[in-house]
Amino acid sequence: MPKPDPSKFFQRPTKRSLSKARIVSKYFDAWCGVLHDTKRLAYRDLYSGRGQYIEGSVPSTPMQICNVLQSRPETAAKMALYFNEESKELAADLEQLVTGHPVYGHLKTKPIFTSHSWNDNQGALGGIRPTCPTLAFLDPFGYDGLSLNEIGNFIQPFGCDCIFLLNTGRLIGAIENPAAENPIEFLFGGQRLPGIRKAVGQLRGRAREEELVRQTRQALKSLGSSDPPPFRFESDVSGRTSYHLFLVSKAPKAGSIWKEVLAKEGTKVGRLVTLEQRNNPDQESLVFMDLLDELMDSLDNKFAGQTRHRLEINQTIAEASSNWTLSDVRKALLQMERDGRVFIERPDTGPYSTAGADLPTQCRVTFCTVDEEA
């Protein structure tokens, strides 16, 4: 597969690149926090790049990871870093940046730098058997070296998660290209590929991409993933989706953390609301209110006439749908209280206290029946 000139790719960052690095580093930070009592941790970036863009010295994902570890010296002391970059020139640039970073002195296990090339004979995760909780990040040009089966095997040990970027725009064309048969079969697996090809081939336009993402999520779920939703990037020019950032993890808590990270990055999970739309407050507000109304209706349907602790409500919504974050649930409950659709008993102020106040996790929420609300 033809690859971009690395010197041009790392000349200046795109909005997508900046957003991607923020998401990965924020999830990494949260992942480190959850596993802070673990004796050993590891991070693997299998398509690292040079670590920094040339214009403005803007840090890319590897240096963002180093920045997180600098703020967590205790975690840095038990972290093993592994960086792979196919270009030896870029790998040398990255090694110089990492070894010169302030966190380097806190790393008891010195980072490993390699320049392997991944393909449909040797996948990026094929030879890896984690011996401690490990977060892997895969950001290839296209889909070279990606295998859903390998990812499924990788996440089986405790604490092992994988984030990968899938160029769905390029993948749509490759699915029907006989010349791309081997890497596509390596990606999806020989048993899944015919069904995916048939399902996608029956559709046109954006529906094809949506179906491809659905099939990918379904495959990952069958391999043990808790099915966190992907982050969707839109093209600045065409408005079409071309990339999806996936988290693959067995842990439901990982999915909750992921959704919170995505929500803060500017997307309403499960909808095509991207960074570009953050600059249009009116549109974001309209989309947000539409989503909030949908969530409030869902809460009404599930809990009408019942009294539940907030933690029970959070757990029920998290198990029922991957579209909502805990922050969304909180906002919906407060809005429903203002609308008179629920009564909230807060432990510090007693029942039916002032609407719109804070919403502690210990509170109890009573949902009106249809007759009460009317």
The overall strand count is 10
Q: What form results from the Cα inertia axes?
A: globular
Strand order of the largest sheet: 3-2-1-4-5-7-6
Count the helices. How many?
Answer: 16
How would the blueprint of this fold be written?
Layout: H1 6-9, H2 15-34, E1 41-45, H3 61-70, H4 73-76, E2 79-84, H5 88-99, E3 112-114, E4 134-138, H6 148-154, E5 161-166, H7 168-175, H8 181-188, H9 193-201, H10 206-222, E6 231-234, E7 241-248, H11 252-265, H12 275-278, H13 281-303, E8 307-309, H14 310-320, H15 326-338, E9 342-345, E10 364-367, H16 370-373
How would you concisely characterize the structure shown here?
The protein is α/β, with parallel strands linked by helices. It contains 16 helices and ten strands. About 8% of the residues have low confidence.
Can you describe this structure?
The protein has 374 residues and is α/β, with parallel strands linked by helices. It folds into 2 domains: 271 residues, 3-Layer(aba) Sandwich (Rossmann fold); 93 residues, Arc Repressor Mutant, subunit A (Orthogonal Bundle), CATH 1.10.10. The chain has 16 helices and 10 strands. The strands form 2 sheets. A 7-stranded mixed β-sheet has the order 3-2-1-4-5-7-6, sandwiched between helices. α5 links the parallel β2 and β3. The longest helix is centred in the C-terminal third of the chain and has 23 residues. The N and C termini lie far apart (62 Å). About 8% of the residues have low confidence.
